[in-house]
Amino acid sequence: MPEELSTDELARKVTQALHELDLDTLISTLHERNRLPGRAAQLISNLRPIFEAARRDHVSLLRPPADFQPWLQGVILTNIDGTEARGNTRISRVTALRALYRALRKLQLLHGDPLVDFTLPSVELRSDPLPPKATIEKLLKAARSDPNLYAALLLIWHHALPMTTLLRLKWSAFDPEKRTLLRDDVVTPLTGKAATALERLLHQAGYDPLYPDTLASTQGKRVFPYDTLDALRLRVLQTCTKANLKFIPPGLIKKCALRDHARSAAHLGYRVEDHYKKVVAMAQAVSDTYRVVEEQ
């Protein structure tokens, strides 16, 4: 059991660890007291290059300098041994640092966000081939143990739900009787799998179909726990790793909806039928191009 500390004592211990760039003490102190989510060992691994670079360059992580973001962009590109870091690794490092800064703000050790407007290195390149349907199905199978991620992936793949819409989605948009989802000004009829996955989450949120009045108590709640796209990306990355898959960006999964689940305009959130047909035709053409390249 960790020693009992008052909030002030905890803040002092964390501040000292930050000044000394004592990463192990910092993370274990916050993690043991439920101030920092995730696996401590993984957080330490992701943050180690940043802390080593801060020690080398005499950069304060508690009081970042004006050029902190350009400095950080350079740091996350390189591993400690000097090799180039992969895109997934860069994302994991920034996500871990965001979580740390969130914990520091809750302790009132920071009053601003040093990473505000910080742009994550993108791994969603235009040249990225669309993952095969079987690969997405393997990812979904691995995600079944995480009901939130499983439902999110189904909405992205079956219905091309934009990530911004997914993050802000509230239960008031879901009709469990009609099994539809209101997305902006389009009512989307959900696939059986997507509707069932959402119903499971809705029951966890407090709705009991035997007591219809319980539906009202859920309407103002957000559907998913992801505060940022980074948080969703991280869960996808972790699940891909567990399934021995390369990272599949959510944006690529959304593109696959046009290839794999183009049933109707409303099904994928389009109001104008002609626009929907043009987009589907383009998606199919891109899919055919990727198929030819892969077969060569």
Topology overview:
Layout: H1 7-19, H2 23-32, H3 40-57, H4 68-76, H5 87-106, H6 133-143, H7 147-159, H8 163-168, E1 174-175, E2 180-183, E3 186-189, H9 192-204, H10 229-242, H11 250-260, H12 273-295
Antiparallel strand pairs: 1-2, 2-3
Helix pairs in contact: 1-2, 2-3, 3-5, 5-10, 7-9, 7-11, 11-12
Protein name: Integrase
InterPro entries: DNA_brk_join_enz
Polypeptide structure, described:
This protein has helices at 7-19, 23-32, 40-57, 68-76, 87-106, 133-143, 147-159, 163-168, 192-204, 229-242, 250-260, 273-295, and strands at residues 174-175, 180-183, 186-189. It is built from twelve helices and three strands. By secondary structure, the protein is mostly helical. The chain starts with 6 loop residues before the first helix and ends with a helix. A three-stranded antiparallel beta sheet has the order 1-2-3, with no helix packed on it.
According to DSSP, the number of beta strands is 3
The arrangement of helices and strands along the chain is HHHHHHHHEEEHHHH
How large, in whole angstroms, is the Cα Rg?
Answer: 22 Å
**Estimated share of beta-strand residues:** under 5%
Low-confidence stretches: 286-296
The end-to-end span amounts to 59 Å
Helix-strand makeup class: mainly alpha
How is the biggest beta sheet arranged?
3 strands, antiparallel
Q: Into which percent range does the helicity of residues fall?
A: 40-55%
